């Protein structure tokens, strides 16, 4: 279940901290609200996006990246499986 709260955003950010990708919030005019630099393992999200937009961007990124989930702790694994199995209602 996707909840649009700062605690939920923090939990998603924790997943990124357990990957090789570095998550950054920067200003920019990205068409999709984010930019993924796979060669440099950097994910950049527009810092001016509202909370709901940031969460939706991070979920979309998590679904599109091949991640090594063996490095995740149990809570992160559960959240990752919930996110990847759910569909966003936009």
Structure report:
The chain is of the alpha+beta class. It has one domain (6-85). 42% of the residues lie in helices and 16% in strands. It contains three helices and three strands, in the order αβββαα. It has helices spanning 6-17, 51-64, 74-85, and strands at 22-26, 34-37, 42-46. It has a three-stranded mixed sheet. A hairpin with a 4-residue loop joins β2 and β3. The radius of gyration is 12 Å and the shape is globular. The two termini are 14 Å apart. The mean pLDDT is 88.
In a nutshell, what does this entry contain?
This protein has 90 residues and is an alpha+beta fold.
Q: What keyword list fits this structure?
A:
90 residues, alpha+beta, three-stranded mixed β-sheet, 3 helices, 3 strands, 16% strand, globular
Strand and helix map with partners:
Layout: H1 6-17, E1 22-26, E2 34-37, E3 42-46, H2 51-64, H3 74-85
Parallel strand pairs: 1-3
Antiparallel strand pairs: 2-3
Helix content: 40-55%
**Largest sheet properties:** 3 strands, mixed
Strand fraction: 15-25%
Main sheet: strand order: 1-3-2
Structural class: alpha+beta
Number of domains: 1
């Amino acid at each position: 279940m996707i909840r649009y709260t700062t605690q939920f955003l923090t939990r998603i950010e924790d997943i990124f901290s357990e990957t090789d990708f570095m998550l950054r919030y920067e200003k920019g005019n990205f068409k999709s609200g984010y930019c993924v630099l796979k060669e440099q393992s950097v994910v950049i999200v527009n810092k001016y996006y509202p909370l709901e937009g940031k969460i939706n961007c991070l979920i979309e990124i998590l679904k599109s990246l091949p991640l090594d989930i063996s490095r995740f702790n149990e809570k992160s694994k559960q959240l990752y499986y919930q996110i990847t199995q759910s569909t966003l209602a936009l």
